[in-house]
Write a structure and sequence with these properties.
Layout lengths: L11 H8 L3 H29 L3 H12 L4 H8 L3 H21 L1 H5 L5
Helix pairs in contact: 3-5, 4-5
Length: 113
């Protein structure tokens, strides 16, 4: 048989056909890749802002919005009433809104339609 590695080589015509991607698909793929990269950056900035919160504020936001826990679980763990937890949530959302407005990456992010 031929030299090492020849056994699994793709012929040039096959390779050329496999690499022929229509221009509009290539452009769309590039745009989607850029969107994904921008979303990763945005996610990291949002996480950074949440991490800057004090413990009870961060805990309420993460448990309620990210992990989808019920108010009864959150209030029991923090040893606060459900009403007080919701009040802390409201205060925290106001704080986050101001932090997001001050964060250039979040503020300048162009949200897709």
């Amino acid at each position: 048989m031929g030299g090492s590695g020849d056994k699994y080589r793709i012929s040039d015509p096959t390779r050329k056909k496999a690499l022929l991607i229509p221009k509009h698909i290539s452009v769309e793929l590039k745009e989607l890749t850029q969107m994904v990269e921008n979303l990763y950056i945005l996610k990291n900035e949002i996480r950074k802002e949440i991490q800057a919160l004090e413990y009870k504020h961060k805990y309420i936001i993460l448990k309620f919005y990210i992990e989808k826990y019920q108010w009864s679980y959150i209030s029991t763990h923090l040893n606060y009433s459900k009403r007080h937890c919701r009040n802390i949530r409201d205060i925290t959302l106001d704080k986050l809104s101001k932090q997001f407005e001050a964060n250039e990456t979040i503020k300048k992010y162009n949200y897709p339609n």
